[in-house]
Design brief:
There is one protein chain. The chain is α/β, with parallel strands linked by helices and 250 residues long. It has one domain: P-loop containing nucleotide triphosphate hydrolases (Rossmann fold). It contains ten helices and eight strands. It has an eight-stranded mixed beta sheet with strand order 3-4-2-5-1-6-7-8, sandwiched between helices. The radius of gyration is 17 Å and the shape is globular. The N and C termini lie far apart (41 Å). It binds adenosine-5'-triphosphate (ATP) and magnesium ion. The site of magnesium ion has 5 residues, from α1. The site of magnesium ion (MG) has 5 residues, from α1.
C-alpha cells in the first residue's frame, strides 16, 4: 500500500492556469517515477482531456458521477505513463450528475497511486467544493492581477474552513512588469498562504497546448517547464536546480 496524496488545484478566477498546471505537474511527477492520476473535476467546462489530446470516448467521469460505471472504466494511460480521467464535453452529459460522488469514487484508488491531482472548476460553487472535499491537500493558483488574487484569497479561506491542508499558491503567467504587485504585497494579500512557485508567462505553453503536449515535454528547458518541474520536485522532497540564467525574480 502506498500513501496516496490527493491534491486539488483550485483558483478563484477562471483562466489562470489550473488545467495547464494539473497536466504538467502530473506529467512532471510521472517523470519523477511517481504513479499519478489526473482527474478533470471541472464538470461544466472540462478541458483536461483536450490538453492531453484524449479522443472523445462514449464514457467519462460524468458517467461515474451518475453511478453508471466504475472510475477504472474511464481511466486512460497516456504514452508517458500518466493516467487521466477526463470529463465529458457534451452538455447533455451534465444531467443527473452528482459531483459529491467524486469523493467516494476515489476511495478505491487510495493506496494504489502516489498522487491524484484534481483539476478544479473556478470559483466557489458546488463543483469546486466537491473537488475540494475530495482532496486532502490543495494548491491554489492565480495570476498577479488583483481580481484573481482577491478571489484566490476567498478560496484559501474556504480551504481552511474545510480543514484541508493548503500547500501554497502558484503565481502563474508572471511577466515581470512594473504594474505587477511585488512579492511582499502578494504575500500580505494572500494572508498566510505562502507562495509555492512562480511561473512566468511563456509562449511555449501555448505551442504545447496546440500540440496537445505538456510544455515540460514540448520544451523541457523553457522557463515555465523548469518552474513546473521544480514544483514537482518540491512536492516529493527532491532537489531540482534551475540554472541562474533561467531564474525569474519577483
Ligand atoms: N505560464 C503560462 N504562460 C503562458 N500561457 C499560459 C500559462 N499558463 C496557462 N496559460 C494559458 O492560459 C490559458 C488558460 O489556462 P488554463 O486553461 O490552464 O486555465 P484554467 O484556470 O484551467 O481555466 P478555467 O478556469 O477556464 O478552467 C490557456 O490558454 C493556457 O495556454
Ligand atoms: Mg481549466
Amino acid at each position: 500500500m502506498v500513501n496516496t496524496r490527493i491534491i486539488s488545484i483550485l483558483s478563484g478566477k477562471g483562466g489562470v492556469g489550473k488545467t495547464t498546471l494539473t497536466f504538467n505537474l502530473g506529467s512532471a511527477l510521472t517523470d519523477f517515477e511517481k504513479n499519478v492520476l489526473i482527474i478533470d473535476g471541472n464538470l461544466t467546462t472540462p478541458n483536461l482531456g483536450i490538453h492531453a489530446g484524449i479522443p472523445l470516448y462514449p464514457t467519462s467521469l460524468h458517467d461515474v458521477l451518475r453511478g453508471k460505471v466504475d472510475i477504472y472504466d474511464v481511466m486512460h494511460v497516456l504514452p508517458s505513463g500518466l493516467k487521466i480521467v477526463p470529463a465529458s464535453i457534451n452538455l447533455n452529459d451534465l444531467k443527473g450528475v452528482n459531483p459529491e460522488l467524486l469523493s467516494s469514487n476515489l476511495t478505491d484508488l487510495v493506496g494504489k497511486l502516489d498522487f491524484i491531482l484534481i483539476d478544479g472548476a473556478p470559483g466557489l460553487g458546488r463543483e469546486a467544493l466537491s473537488v475540494l472535499k475530495s482532496s486532502n491537500e490543495v494548491i491554489g493558483i492565480t495570476t498577479l492581477e488583483l481580481p484573481a488574487l482577491t478571489d484566490l484569497l476567498k478560496s484559501i479561506r474556504i480551504v481552511k474552513e474545510q480543514k484541508k491542508e493548503y500547500l501554497g499558491s502558484v503565481i502563474n503567467m508572471v511577466r515581470n512588469k512594473r504594474y505587477e504587485p511585488k512579492r511582499e504585497h502578494v504575500e500580505t494579500l494572500l494572508e498566510d498562504g505562502s507562495i509555492l512557485e512562480i511561473i512566468p508567462h511563456d509562449e511555449n505553453v501555448k505551442y504545447a497546448l496546440a500540440k496537445r503536449m505538456p510544455v515540460i515535454h514540448h520544451k523541457p528547458n523553457s522557463k515555465a517547464s523548469l518552474k513546473i518541474k521544480s514544483l514537482a520536485a518540491k512536492l516529493i522532497g527532491k532537489e531540482f536546480k534551475i540554472p541562474w540564467y533561467k531564474r525569474l525574480f519577483l
